[in-house]
Amino acid sequence: MLDEIIGVYKDISFGKGYSERCTEANGGKDIQVEIKLDSKDKTYLPKGFESQHEAYSLHVDGKGNTKIEAKHYPGVIRGLDSFSQLMTRTKENESEYMMEYLPIEIKDEPSYPYRGVMLDTSREYFFPETIKQILDSMLISRLNVFHWHLMDDDSFPLYLESYPDMTNYTAFSPEEIYTPKMIKDIVKYAKVRGIKVIPGINGPGHVNILGNYPKLSSIISCYRKPVVNGLAYGSPHGGIINPLEEDSYDFYTNMMKDIHASFECEYCHNGGIVPEFNCWNSSQEIQDFLHQGGYHQNDLTQIFFSKRKEKAQDSAGHQMTNIYWYQSNGIKYQEDDILQYWEMGGKIDREFAKYPKNKFVLSTSEMNINCGYLTPFGQNSQICFSPMSPDSYVRFPSMSQESKKQVLGVEILAWNQMSNEFDLLTKLNPHSGASSMIFWNSDYELKGGYMKERLMRLQYRLKRYGIPTSKVSMRYCEEHTHHCFG
């Protein structure tokens, strides 16, 4: 795995195909870098999220001799990343590189250990080659979590061994599915790049697509078929899990067993968006249950969470940490649950205080890459008035010091109602990397020409590796950053 990531960084530093172009036969000469990895952990990605997992030291002496030391594999990756940025092309010969300001000593680790991207493949299918490009862009941007949103009302393209014919009903087409072999290949590709893959499912809401599958029709309440010549502002949502149906838990148990076999996941994002209570209100069976037990609809959501977790954990054969979308709904989460805060930033202190023992991942509204773009129906965005520039992401949401202690990190949201394989990467880059910058080093203020220079360097590195990216500014300002921005 070390040989593979070293090869990747050669291409990042000098352009793709470096290994073929630069050989001793045509005068090329490799730079010698000593790498010391102390960890005896052969899984390469340590369990949990700790800043020390990415800690490293980098020493370059006056002659250019280089040594990278780290206790964990992700630290080696960050050391290679810093080293690759120290080399610049000479003005006399673009095929030659140099390092300045020697000797150099760097000791570094992130302020926040979770820096991720959520990719929604329910509303738009992305082929594995494109997903790998996203993972490459994440590596260059120092992002280490790939949250794969697999299930929503629109589709569920994941092939499950327990339900081999399900994707005939839940995928957009037979060509647009993810098989266990494809999943394992992507997970391995991510691991080499120091990225943890977290599968994302849904429940009790946002599961209308499951109602397409005849074998699961009994577990979906208020299923809505797509209407021909109908007008629906949004996907055909409405169908939600019936938490009183035992088959509901059998399905989740079987699904989690299959998911773990493909992902070998330490974490699972379990959705958790509170459903439309009008559906449960229309069910006499559910109303009788609530009345007899003195329950509220939120209690029913709580029952579903608890029972699903208990059964799914048993099926997976090990304990997984659960992540939920956070809403102000009074749900009683367990202390080890991670909550993903995706509401407006102004309420952070108040909402965090309700769950003082839980860790939060920040995905406030402006961290949605669709921010400012038109909706699928041509309406103005309800999130922002205009698309956000990359430097808008280089800021830490306003909150108290006490709330900051609960922050695990950040995640950029790539909901794909209006994105596809051809434009997503230009929306994602360099925006996601800009967010990673501030969560890697939250104590350092990035502003003015220095901030623009950092973003343009990131843009340049992405381009050299063949990854589509939007521009930070015009070409003149790329070459005269401080003249344009101070």
Describe this entry's structure for a reader:
With 486 residues, the protein is α/β, with parallel strands linked by helices. Helices cover 34% and strands 15% of the residues. The protein contains 17 helices and 16 strands. The chain has an 8-stranded parallel beta sheet. Strands 1-3-2-6 form a 4-stranded mixed beta sheet, with helices on one face. Helix 1 (2-14) packs parallel to helix 3 (73-86) and helix 7 packs across helix 10 (297-316). Mean pLDDT is 88; it is low at 229-234.
Helix-strand blueprint:
Layout: H1 2-14, H2 18-21, E1 33-37, E2 56-60, E3 66-70, H3 73-86, E4 87-89, E5 97-99, E6 104-108, E7 114-120, H4 128-140, E8 145-149, H5 167-170, H6 180-192, E9 196-200, E10 220-221, E11 240-241, H7 246-263, E12 267-269, H8 277-281, H9 284-293, H10 297-316, E13 321-326, E14 338-341, H11 348-352, E15 359-362, H12 401-404, E16 407-414, H13 424-428, H14 431-440, H15 448-464, H16 475-479, H17 481-485
Parallel strand pairs: 1-3, 7-8, 7-16, 8-9, 12-13, 13-14, 14-15, 15-16
Antiparallel strand pairs: 2-3, 2-6, 4-5, 10-11
